[in-house]
């Protein structure tokens, strides 16, 4: 079953002579339970693709569906994003005045959950990625790698059915990076759809499929033979 569908999606940044055609007529489906890795050179449109797939940006032309919903017709896109989509950005975006646990709780509290329940969920997901001991620290008290793990916990909390990860292993050592990939893979196997941008072939090996972008177009798409790759 397809969970995310991009059809003939184009995105032009700017206008006239300075216009940048970041994506040009991209078609992509990600199924429930599927992990798709997006690879490609710098500037090929990977982040633009992720932002469009999660409704953070709108296409210049073409359509994006999450589940049954055409994002162009969704009234409360922010609510849809909060309930269905988890993002791990390159620049982390943790709120400095909140502890790690409070950062992870925040999306659930915005969903209307009581604090005690949101905290329970936050602690469970921090435990899942082996980061419970970070719960009561503030972002400035964490290393780059620890911040990354907290940002990942925030993306996983709740019943997010679509996870978008842009270089989620960027600041992490190999062991922790592998742990994160194992967690993403487990979420996927439990029914999430995952889009992962990575420069590193070793992480792409965790994917079901690798999509290569070049100059805003899908240049190639390869199914990964999982057993041999991991
Ligand atoms: N807001 C924006 N305004 C103007 N141009 C943009 C904007 N966002 C992206 N671009 C341009 O669109 C193209 C695709 O950018 P994008 O960030 O999607 O590529 P990327 O493959 O993710 O690159 P990287 O690997 O360096 O993160 C690039 O030429 C970039 O400069």
TrEMBL record:
Tell me yes or no: is Transport among this UniProt entry's keywords. Answer: yes
Q: Where is the ABC transporter domain?
A: 4-228
This protein's UniProt keywords: ATP-binding, Nucleotide-binding, Transport
Which CDD domains does the UniProt entry name for this protein? ABC_MJ0796_LolCDE_FtsE (cd03255)
Q: What organism is listed for this UniProt entry?
A: Nonomuraea rosea
User: Does the keyword field hold Nucleotide-binding?
Assistant: yes
Question: One MF term from GO for this chain?
Answer: ATP binding
Q: Which Pfam families has this protein been placed in?
A: ABC_tran (PF00005)
Name this polypeptide is given: ABC transporter ATP-binding protein
Cited InterPro entries: AAA+_ATPase (IPR003593), ABC_transporter-like_ATP-bd (IPR003439), ABC_transporter-like_CS (IPR017871), ABC_transpr_LolD-like (IPR015854), MacB-like_ATP-bd (IPR017911), P-loop_NTPase (IPR027417)
């Amino acid at each position: 079953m397809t969970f995310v569908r991009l059809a003939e999606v184009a995105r032009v940044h700017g206008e006239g002579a300075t216009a940048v055609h970041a994506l040009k007529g991209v078609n992509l489906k990600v199924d429930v339970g599927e992990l798709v890795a997006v690879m490609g050179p710098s500037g090929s449109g990977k982040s633009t693709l992720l932002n469009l797939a999660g409704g953070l940006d709108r296409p210049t032309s073409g359509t994006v569906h999450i589940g049954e919903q055409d994002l162009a017709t969704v009234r409360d896109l922010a609510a849809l994003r909060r309930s269905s989509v988890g993002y791990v950005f390159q620049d982390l975006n943790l709120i400095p005045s909140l502890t790690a646990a409070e950062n992870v709780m925040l999306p659930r509290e915005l969903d209307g959950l009581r604090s005690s329940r949101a905290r329970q969920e936050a602690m469970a997901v921090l435990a899942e990625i082996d980061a419970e001991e970070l719960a009561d620290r503030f972002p400035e008290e964490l290393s780059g790698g620890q911040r990354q793990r907290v940002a990942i916990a925030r993306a996983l909390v709740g019943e997010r059915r679509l996870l978008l990860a842009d270089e989620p292993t960027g600041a992490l050592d190999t062991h922790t990076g592998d742990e994160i990939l194992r967690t993403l893979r487990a979420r996927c196997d439990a029914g999430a759809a995952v889009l992962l941008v990575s420069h590193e072939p070793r992480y792409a090996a965790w994917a079901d499929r690798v999509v290569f972008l070049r100059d805003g177009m899908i240049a190639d798409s390869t199914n990964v033979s999982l057993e041999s790759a991991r």
